[in-house]
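User: Before I run my own analysis I want an independent prediction to cross-check against. Here's the chain; please return only the structure tokens and, at the end, one sentence I can use as a sanity check.
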Amino acid sequence: MTRIEGPPVGRISEPIQKGGRIKGVPVLKPPNIALAREAGEKGFIQKLSIGQQEVIRRRYSIDGNPPLSLSVIGDYLHLTREEVRQLETRGFRNIQRLKEGKPPLVKGGCHRTDIDVSEVIRLYIEENKTSRQIARLFMCGHMTVLRRLHANRITTRPASRKK
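Assistant: Structure tokens:
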């Protein structure tokens, strides 16, 4: 029989009480938990960007699933932990604005609501157009097109390089 090395069971709670962390266990701030629950009840989450919605739902278990860590959410969304943390921060800032009766802030200045996502997907998959070609058709940036594709879980093709 092999012995498992590690700290004694009695000492595990000490570092946690002093602000330590156990890898893989999300550390959630109580004010954010309350704000996330309130936002879920009042429907503020639907008014956030798709990325902010995903992060807050997964991080604060709005849908009833267990809360996830930044790295797990990042792996799912193909983002770094820092990008997930920034989305979470922006999401809570927008929830606070919505509570105050103000419109949510959108990265980049304005939010394009006139772009039909189903049309973007059709052009990308069926007509095999690139994100840049679709962006020219909709007169928007190609990153807007890529974000819409990623938000709808469409795997994107690598960009071709000019020689």
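Sanity check: The radius of gyration is 20 Å.
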